[in-house]
Amino acid sequence: MWAVECNEAVFTDESRICLQHHDGWIRVWRHRGERMLNSCVMHRHTGPAPGIMVWDGNGYHSRTPLVRIAGTLNSQRYISKLLEPAVLP
């Protein structure tokens, strides 16, 4: 019974795509004993990096179109801009 119900499920997620070479995380590549060497730290700009938010849904027999999310997403916008036009049809 659960296999039939699982075939009807749609899994959704959103993701941010960074439009620069870095995503705001500091990555450090070093060998043992080089813990705080300046040559091992990548210095970067600390301001917000430009990017876009996208949303998608996948089901057993279907998938939704990739949707760009502009602005802040609250529960009412999630329903009216994503679920109703992309998942319900």
From TrEMBL:
Domain of life, per lineage: Eukaryota
Gene: X975_12857
Protein name (record): Transposable element Tcb1 transposase
InterPro entries hit by this protein: RNaseH_sf
Species per Swiss-Prot/TrEMBL record: Trichonephila clavipes
GO MF assignments: nucleic acid binding
